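Researcher: Next sequence.
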Amino acid sequence: MIFDFAGLLRIDPQNFSFRQLYQMYLSCQKNTWDHTAAICSTILNVNRGSKSKIVKMENLNPYRKSKKEFPKIQLDKKASMRILKKVFIDHDPPTLEDLQSGKI
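Model: Next structure:
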């Protein structure tokens, strides 16, 4: 696998750890996808109809898709213990609505 990464990166792997090669490989993949997504979005936008939406480069690139963020909820110690009991003892995890509404 090390030589696969080194071959794709076109470098000598001797001076790098596996982690360094892997990070370089991921960066190379992101760069390649940026290039591909830019070309595809340009082609799609040039050939789109007048009523269709503009295609953004980020929508075509799997590395640039936005990650879903979960809301941050502040809990006191008693609420935290109730949630842990519900999850690990009762085997009934609370829903996000329960947490947001304060039912727990």
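Model: The radius of gyration is 23 Å. The chain has two domains: 1-67, 70-104.
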